């Protein structure tokens, strides 16, 4: 279970990093 939580935490951090990238939003709006 602990490993799963770690994986989820990494995924969230990855997502947050992508959301801070303007290109991420520009691609969504196309």
Which quaternary structure do these chains form?
single chain
Spatial gap, N to C terminus: 39 Å
* Radius of gyration using CA atoms only: 12 Å
Summarize the helix and strand pattern as letters: HH
**How would you sum up the global shape?**
elongated
What is the number of beta strands?
Answer: 0
Overall pLDDT, averaged?
A: 84
How would you summarize this macromolecular structure in one to three sentences?
The protein has 30 residues and is mainly alpha-helical. 87% of the residues lie in helices and 0% in strands.
Explain this structure to me?
By secondary structure, the protein is mainly alpha-helical. It is built from two helices and no strands. The protein has helices at 2-19, 22-29. The mean pLDDT is 84.
Topology:
Blueprint: H1 2-19, H2 22-29
